[in-house]
Amino acid sequence: MRPQKVNDEELLISLTKVFRERGYEGTSIKELSDLTGLKKASLYHRFPNGKQEMAASVLEYIGKWVADNIFHAFTNEADTYKTRLKNGMFQIRKLYEGGKNPCILKALSTQNGMELFHQSISKGMKEWVAAFINLGLSMEFTKQMAEEKAIQTLIDIQGSLILSKTLDNATIFESTLKKIENRYS
Amino acid sequence: MRPQKVNDEELLISLTKVFRERGYEGTSIKELSDLTGLKKASLYHRFPNGKQEMAASVLEYIGKWVADNIFHAFTNEADTYKTRLKNGMFQIRKLYEGGKNPCILKALSTQNGMELFHQSISKGMKEWVAAFINLGLSMEFTKQMAEEKAIQTLIDIQGSLILSKTLDNATIFESTLKKIENRYS
DNA sequence: GTCTATAGCTAGATAGAC
DNA sequence: GTCTATCTAGCTATAGAC
């Protein structure tokens, strides 16, 4: 077997970039081929089920990245609450590159032919909510308060990403993150 | 000339439904033809510049609807502040059908080939912000507070629409609207 | 103004050589 | 595992009859 031109992680990172910016229908295999440096047939070799598998793999990859980096930072018992929060928020900034990157869950939530990815997107969003609920509970919020704050935090993240993008104003995302930090301090 | 099968407003309403759910790239002329009841060639007769003009017309139509119904309600000097707020929020519920409809600005904000609609989307979003700033100013908020609350209100609307959709939970949108009402009461 | 028919193209996907 | 070449379906868009 010939060696891989790009390894799995590099490949998934490139695929993520395109799907995140273009959405599912807006992404063409040709564009994925150009950005990854792999010819179309090679992409189909890596993902035998085609475009759907490519997008599904991106969702899986990002889901794992978020769990390993963001959620893990929030629950790392070696750190103080303050440090956990700080580290987690740092990784959130990284994920969205300070508001420049759209959320992949949002980007793939609109596509044709019924709900190709609805289940994984719903699962991913629930994991985000659960992570912030746990963060709130560890700060001795009541269960109800922890739930309310978690939902509002996700609203803030998603909404501020959209406003930052449509208004070309990254400070909206940044000040929203600060507000979230205050909510959990 | 033969009579129109569907008038301009009916036509735009149907086009809106598809673009809002599918996005620009996800929408096919065939699907627009099926839903409107007009054959493809007839759609091109109504919109000589094709799909781009169809989507641009949808943005224009919704922009006008929002100005005439929502923003107008907020500034209707015949009403008390309380009534203005109540009427405006009622129209917002109607626009998004209680959280079931995606925002057309969001739906069209992701598309190929550079920024086809970025300018109108940005303009539309700025009008929303300005409307809530004015609402705040009319309630004697300071300029800074009015701006902050307006931005947060738009974040809340956009974010809660996304969460309602991805989590299949319309109550998120509804309780967010209640929260906004409290913010301006 | 609406329609049938079709042009021209590009999309996603596959076959088979290396 | 990657590649060139190709298939087929579906897309946007147009021509021309009524």
Report what the structure shows.
The structure is a homodimer of 185-residue chains. Chain A is mainly α. The first copy, chain A, has a domain of 126 residues: Tetracycline Repressor, domain 2, CATH 1.10.357. Helix content of chain A is 75%, strand content 0%. The first copy, chain A, contains 9 helices and no strands. In chain A, 39% of the residues are buried. The model of chain A has no long low-confidence stretch (mean pLDDT 96). The interface between A and B is large, with 36 and 36 residues. The first copy, chain A, binds a DNA duplex (18 and 18 nucleotides) through α3.
Which features does this protein show?
homodimer, 185 residues, mainly alpha, Tetracycline Repressor, domain 2, elongated, DNA-binding
Helix and strand pattern of chain A: HHHHHHHHH
Query: What is the tally of beta strands of chain A?
Result: 0
What structural class should be given to the helix and strand makeup of chain A? mainly alpha
C-alpha end-to-end distance of chain A: 54 Å
**CATH fold field value of the domain at 58-183 in chain A:** Tetracycline Repressor, domain 2
CATH class of the domain at 58-183 in chain A: Mainly Alpha
Subunit organisation of the chains: homodimer
Average pLDDT level of chain A: 96
Number of helices of chain A: 9
What would you call the shape of chain A? elongated
The profile of the biggest β sheet of chain A is: none
Rg of chain A, nearest Å = 18 Å
Binned strand content of chain A: under 5%
Low-confidence stretches of chain A: none
Helix share bin of chain A: over 70%
User: What is the CATH superfamily of the domain at 58-183 in chain A?
Assistant: Tetracycline Repressor, domain 2
The CATH level-2 architecture of the domain at 58-183 in chain A is identified as: Orthogonal Bundle
Greatest interface (CB-CB under 8 A), with counts per chain = A-B, 36 and 36 residues
